[in-house]
Amino acid sequence: MATKTTETSTAASTEAVTDKKLTVGNAKVDENEMKHSSLHKFFVDALKDIYYAEDAIITALEKMQEAATTEELKDAFEDHQLQTKKHISRLEKVFKSINEEPERKKCEAIEGIIKEGEEIIKTTKEGSMTRDAALIIAAQKVEHYEIATYGGLAQLAITMGHDKAADLLERTLQEEEETDHNLTDIAETFINFDAEQED
Ligand SMILES: [Fe+2]
Ligand SMILES: [Fe+2]
Protein backbone atom coordinates (compact mmCIF):
# COMPACT_ATOMS: atom_id res chain seq x y z
CA MET A 1 0.00 0.00 0.00
CA ALA A 2 2.74 2.40 1.06
CA THR A 3 4.78 1.48 -2.03
CA LYS A 4 1.86 2.25 -4.26
CA THR A 5 1.50 5.77 -2.78
CA THR A 6 5.21 6.44 -3.39
CA GLU A 7 4.94 5.28 -6.99
CA THR A 8 1.98 7.55 -7.61
CA SER A 9 3.71 10.60 -6.15
CA THR A 10 6.89 9.91 -8.14
CA ALA A 11 4.87 9.67 -11.32
CA ALA A 12 3.10 12.92 -10.47
CA SER A 13 6.32 14.81 -9.81
CA THR A 14 7.94 13.51 -13.01
CA GLU A 15 4.94 14.82 -14.90
CA ALA A 16 5.28 18.20 -13.19
CA VAL A 17 8.95 18.43 -14.19
CA THR A 18 8.10 17.56 -17.80
CA ASP A 19 5.41 20.24 -17.81
CA LYS A 20 7.90 22.83 -16.54
CA LYS A 21 10.38 21.95 -19.27
CA LEU A 22 7.69 22.49 -21.86
CA THR A 23 6.82 25.84 -20.35
CA VAL A 24 10.46 26.89 -20.42
CA GLY A 25 10.64 25.92 -24.08
CA ASN A 26 7.52 27.86 -24.94
CA ALA A 27 8.66 30.87 -22.92
CA LYS A 28 11.51 31.38 -25.36
CA VAL A 29 8.99 31.67 -28.15
CA ASP A 30 6.69 33.98 -26.24
CA GLU A 31 9.02 36.19 -24.24
CA ASN A 32 6.37 38.85 -23.71
CA GLU A 33 4.12 36.43 -21.93
CA MET A 34 6.98 35.35 -19.71
CA LYS A 35 7.82 38.96 -18.82
CA HIS A 36 4.34 39.43 -17.40
CA SER A 37 4.42 36.32 -15.25
CA SER A 38 4.36 36.82 -11.48
CA LEU A 39 7.52 34.77 -11.08
CA HIS A 40 9.42 36.89 -13.59
CA LYS A 41 8.30 40.06 -11.77
CA PHE A 42 9.41 38.61 -8.47
CA PHE A 43 12.77 37.60 -9.97
CA VAL A 44 13.41 41.12 -11.31
CA ASP A 45 12.29 42.69 -8.03
CA ALA A 46 14.64 40.44 -6.08
CA LEU A 47 17.49 41.42 -8.43
CA LYS A 48 16.77 45.10 -7.73
CA ASP A 49 16.84 44.37 -4.02
CA ILE A 50 20.26 42.66 -4.10
CA TYR A 51 21.60 45.32 -6.50
CA TYR A 52 20.77 47.91 -3.84
CA ALA A 53 22.16 45.68 -1.09
CA GLU A 54 25.54 45.16 -2.81
CA ASP A 55 25.95 48.93 -3.06
CA ALA A 56 25.21 49.37 0.64
CA ILE A 57 27.64 46.55 1.47
CA ILE A 58 30.54 48.37 -0.21
CA THR A 59 30.15 51.32 2.16
CA ALA A 60 29.66 49.02 5.14
CA LEU A 61 32.81 47.02 4.35
CA GLU A 62 34.79 50.24 4.20
CA LYS A 63 33.66 51.18 7.72
CA MET A 64 34.30 47.67 9.01
CA GLN A 65 37.78 47.64 7.52
CA GLU A 66 38.62 50.92 9.28
CA ALA A 67 37.19 49.66 12.57
CA ALA A 68 38.90 46.24 12.55
CA THR A 69 41.90 45.56 14.77
CA THR A 70 43.61 42.57 13.12
CA GLU A 71 45.50 42.99 9.87
CA GLU A 72 44.14 39.69 8.49
CA LEU A 73 40.59 40.88 9.04
CA LYS A 74 41.26 44.30 7.52
CA ASP A 75 42.68 42.54 4.44
CA ALA A 76 39.69 40.20 4.22
CA PHE A 77 37.29 43.15 4.28
CA GLU A 78 39.34 44.96 1.65
CA ASP A 79 39.43 41.89 -0.62
CA HIS A 80 35.72 41.37 -0.31
CA GLN A 81 35.08 45.00 -1.10
CA LEU A 82 36.79 44.46 -4.46
CA GLN A 83 34.78 41.30 -5.01
CA THR A 84 31.58 43.16 -4.16
CA LYS A 85 32.29 45.63 -6.97
CA LYS A 86 32.48 42.62 -9.29
CA HIS A 87 29.13 41.40 -7.92
CA ILE A 88 27.58 44.72 -8.89
CA SER A 89 28.84 44.55 -12.47
CA ARG A 90 27.75 40.90 -12.69
CA LEU A 91 24.25 41.91 -11.60
CA GLU A 92 24.21 44.51 -14.37
CA LYS A 93 25.00 41.69 -16.80
CA VAL A 94 22.19 39.59 -15.30
CA PHE A 95 19.69 42.44 -15.88
CA LYS A 96 20.96 42.82 -19.42
CA SER A 97 20.75 39.08 -20.14
CA ILE A 98 17.00 39.14 -19.44
CA ASN A 99 16.43 42.48 -21.23
CA GLU A 100 15.73 44.45 -18.05
CA GLU A 101 17.18 47.77 -16.89
CA PRO A 102 19.37 47.64 -13.77
CA GLU A 103 17.53 49.44 -10.98
CA ARG A 104 17.96 49.64 -7.22
CA LYS A 105 15.15 49.01 -4.79
CA LYS A 106 15.70 49.79 -1.12
CA CYS A 107 16.47 46.61 0.78
CA GLU A 108 15.29 47.00 4.39
CA ALA A 109 16.87 43.69 5.42
CA ILE A 110 20.42 44.69 4.51
CA GLU A 111 19.89 48.12 6.09
CA GLY A 112 19.04 46.34 9.35
CA ILE A 113 21.99 43.96 9.19
CA ILE A 114 24.38 46.84 8.43
CA LYS A 115 22.92 48.89 11.30
CA GLU A 116 23.72 46.02 13.63
CA GLY A 117 27.35 46.14 12.42
CA GLU A 118 27.51 49.87 13.10
CA GLU A 119 26.16 49.26 16.59
CA ILE A 120 29.01 46.79 17.18
CA ILE A 121 31.57 49.41 16.22
CA LYS A 122 29.97 51.86 18.67
CA THR A 123 29.76 49.44 21.58
CA THR A 124 33.14 47.67 21.41
CA LYS A 125 36.57 49.02 22.38
CA GLU A 126 38.79 50.28 19.58
CA GLY A 127 41.80 48.00 19.08
CA SER A 128 40.16 45.08 20.86
CA MET A 129 39.85 41.50 19.64
CA THR A 130 36.32 41.40 20.98
CA ARG A 131 35.47 44.01 18.37
CA ASP A 132 36.96 41.82 15.63
CA ALA A 133 35.12 38.71 16.84
CA ALA A 134 31.85 40.67 16.75
CA LEU A 135 32.64 42.28 13.38
CA ILE A 136 33.20 38.85 11.84
CA ILE A 137 29.76 37.71 12.95
CA ALA A 138 28.23 40.91 11.60
CA ALA A 139 29.98 40.38 8.25
CA GLN A 140 28.86 36.75 8.16
CA LYS A 141 25.25 37.88 8.62
CA VAL A 142 25.70 39.97 5.48
CA GLU A 143 27.20 36.99 3.62
CA HIS A 144 24.40 34.69 4.69
CA TYR A 145 21.80 37.15 3.44
CA GLU A 146 23.63 37.22 0.10
CA ILE A 147 24.02 33.43 0.00
CA ALA A 148 20.27 32.96 0.55
CA THR A 149 19.48 35.50 -2.17
CA TYR A 150 21.98 34.33 -4.81
CA GLY A 151 21.27 30.65 -4.11
CA GLY A 152 17.53 31.11 -4.54
CA LEU A 153 17.81 33.39 -7.58
CA ALA A 154 20.26 31.08 -9.35
CA GLN A 155 17.81 28.21 -8.95
CA LEU A 156 14.93 30.32 -10.24
CA ALA A 157 17.04 31.40 -13.21
CA ILE A 158 17.69 27.75 -14.07
CA THR A 159 13.98 26.93 -13.79
CA MET A 160 13.03 29.86 -16.03
CA GLY A 161 15.64 28.93 -18.61
CA HIS A 162 17.84 32.02 -18.05
CA ASP A 163 21.10 30.08 -18.42
CA LYS A 164 23.44 33.07 -18.62
CA ALA A 165 21.85 34.73 -15.60
CA ALA A 166 22.06 31.46 -13.68
CA ASP A 167 25.75 31.13 -14.45
CA LEU A 168 26.51 34.70 -13.33
CA LEU A 169 24.48 34.35 -10.13
CA GLU A 170 26.17 31.05 -9.30
CA ARG A 171 29.62 32.58 -9.69
CA THR A 172 28.77 35.28 -7.17
CA LEU A 173 27.16 32.71 -4.87
CA GLN A 174 30.41 30.78 -4.82
CA GLU A 175 32.42 33.88 -3.86
CA GLU A 176 30.00 34.72 -1.04
CA GLU A 177 30.35 31.17 0.29
CA GLU A 178 34.14 31.33 0.11
CA THR A 179 34.11 34.65 1.96
CA ASP A 180 31.94 33.17 4.68
CA HIS A 181 34.35 30.24 5.17
CA ASN A 182 37.35 32.55 5.07
CA LEU A 183 35.86 34.68 7.86
CA THR A 184 35.33 31.57 10.00
CA ASP A 185 39.00 30.61 9.45
CA ILE A 186 40.19 34.09 10.45
CA ALA A 187 38.05 34.01 13.60
CA GLU A 188 39.36 30.61 14.62
CA THR A 189 43.00 31.24 13.73
CA PHE A 190 43.64 34.81 14.83
CA ILE A 191 40.80 36.26 16.85
CA ASN A 192 38.44 34.27 19.04
CA PHE A 193 41.03 32.86 21.42
CA ASP A 194 42.60 36.25 22.07
CA ALA A 195 39.18 37.85 22.44
CA GLU A 196 38.37 35.33 25.12
CA GLN A 197 41.45 36.45 27.09
CA GLU A 198 40.34 40.09 27.14
CA ASP A 199 38.65 41.75 30.14
FE1 LIG B 1 28.16 40.30 -2.86
FE1 LIG C 1 29.44 39.38 0.10
Structure description:
With 199 residues, the chain is mostly helical. Helices cover 86% and strands 0% of the residues. It has one domain (32-190): Up-down Bundle (Ferritin), CATH 1.20.1260.10. The chain has helices at residues 2-29, 31-35, 38-67, 71-97, 108-123, 129-159, 163-197. Helix 3 runs antiparallel to helix 6 (129-159). The termini are far apart. The relative contact order is 0.13. Mean pLDDT is 89; it is low at 1-23. One fe (ii) ion (FE2) binds next to helix 4 and helix 7. InterPro entries: DUF892_YciF-like, Ferritin-like, Ferritin-like_SF, YciF. It comes from Chryseobacterium gilvum. Pfam families: DUF892. This is Ferritin-like domain-containing protein.
What's the arrangement of secondary structure elements?
Blueprint lengths: L1 H28 L1 H5 L2 H30 L3 H27 L10 H16 L5 H31 L3 H35 L2
Helix pairs in contact: 3-4, 3-5, 3-6, 4-7, 5-6, 6-7
Bound molecules: fe (ii) ion (2 copies).
Q: How many structural domains does the protein architecture include?
A: 1
CATH homology superfamily: Ferritin, core subunit, four-helix bundle
* Top CATH class: Mainly Alpha
Q: Supply the helix-strand structural class.
A: mainly alpha
Assembly category: single chain
Q: How many separate helices?
A: 7
Strand content: under 5%
CATH architecture: Up-down Bundle
Using only C-alpha atoms, the radius of gyration works out to 21 Å
Order of helices and strands: HHHHHHH
Question: What small molecules accompany the polymer chains?
Answer: fe (ii) ion
Examine the coordinates and then state which fold CATH places here, giving the name of the CATH topology. Answer: Ferritin
Protein name: Ferritin-like domain-containing protein
